Amino acid sequence: MEGIENYSLEVKLSADKLEAEIVLKVDEEDLDNIVLREEDVYSALQTNQVKVGILDDVVRDLCAFPRKFANARITIARGVAPVDGTDAFIEYPYLANVSNEGGPKELEDGRVDYYNITSIPNVAKGQLLARKIPATPGTPGTAVTGEPIAPKAGKEIHIKPGKNVVHNQERTLVYAAIDGQVSFTEQDKLNVFPVYDVNGDVDFGVGNIDFVGTVVIRGNVLNGFRVKASGDIRVLGSVEGAELYAGGSIEIKSGIVAQDKGMIVAGHDIRTSFIQNANVSAGNEVIVSQSIMFSNVRAGKQIICNGPKGIIIGGVLQAGEKIAARVFGNNRATPTILEVGVKPELRQELANIQKDLQNVYENLRKTDQGLGVINQILHTGKELTPEKRLMQIKLTNTRLVLEKECKQLEARKKDLENELKGETPAAVEAYHVMYPGIKMTFGKLVHFVKHEYARTRFIVLDGEISTATLI
After folding, report:
1. Are 17 and 56 found together in one domain?
2. How far apart are CA 409 and CA 146, in angstroms?
3. Distance CA 198, CA 165 (A)
4. Which residues belong to any copy of the Flagellar Assembly Protein A N-terminal region domain (predicted)?
5. Which positions ≥6 away from 387 have C-beta within 8 Å?
6. The pLDDT of residue 419 is above 70
């Protein structure tokens, strides 16, 4: 019996045109008699613009065994996927001689020492601090139609030179302009600052400190004193109810016991062993090895409390990306507030704008009342006295100013509310247990913890706060 040609070939391309599939469509009763020629397959591919990456062995098999492949999708051509470029990154050669010795050391009392002052490198004038490794453009791919597929270029990054550093003309290398210590300040600016060394406590014998550089305190900072540094602040002892302000990072080896006094503010990171009854704010991260107790803690990115104890109880903690601890709360359901998903300053700005708007609305109401009284006089046909006419001009101008301010505030309020929707990746992670009594906020989403959770990550999925088990 002669073969029949009662069939059709259907070719489909993937959305990215990196793959083509073919379907041999034939009725069941005709399967045994079908004759499929290779030139027919190549013709069907050509009709559908498939020119590159054709799998010749698949074509041969399809024609040799059409019954085997009938009415099924098979891949007939594969293009070449583009290779995305690599992101630019920054190397810090000055760190090459810093010994980590396997990471932080655990002390005899169980605490973890993150804060050995000798681990902070001194640099010399002219020393290379940073080197930018540029992004790569990637390698183009080829679609099965022969069209080039552009790769995704690597993301650029820029070294941000701060104080006492110099860079080359291409801004790819940064060198120290003075002897000192490296400090990263807000927005990851790279600086070198001179060092002011206090060989003891900050007390009445030393007084308040305001230094354009890095401050090293080899004792404690006592109640009521203030230390301000444009670079880093490093305290080998403890900090009581004092004020510490650093443009860079703050490291406190023996913890913070503030008795609800003072303020600890860093443009970059804050690292310490414990925080108790304190107000703490970092532009980047707050890293605590033991505990955070009844404190207000804010971090632009993360709050991490994951030492051997790693417990957070009470207070308000706000972080842009993540709050993580070994234990949250206690079995007495002590109220603890966790807010993640946006930078804390945005939430504070929104609260301030809402207050400002209330004042503007109230002032508009009073202005309209005054203009209403003047309009009533005009409706009676009476002329305004010079005083009333002056008042009308002032009230009209005031209203124009208030309307403009109102529009600006409402526009900013809308922008902030969009950022507070919890759409940015954010998480709360309990590595051991989370007790009831926790109020968790992701943007506008709120979750009250009413039972214990063990080893749990809280995230936002599909507009709801969801949980996942930590391995």
Report:
1. yes
2. 53
3. 25
4. 10-186
5. none
6. no
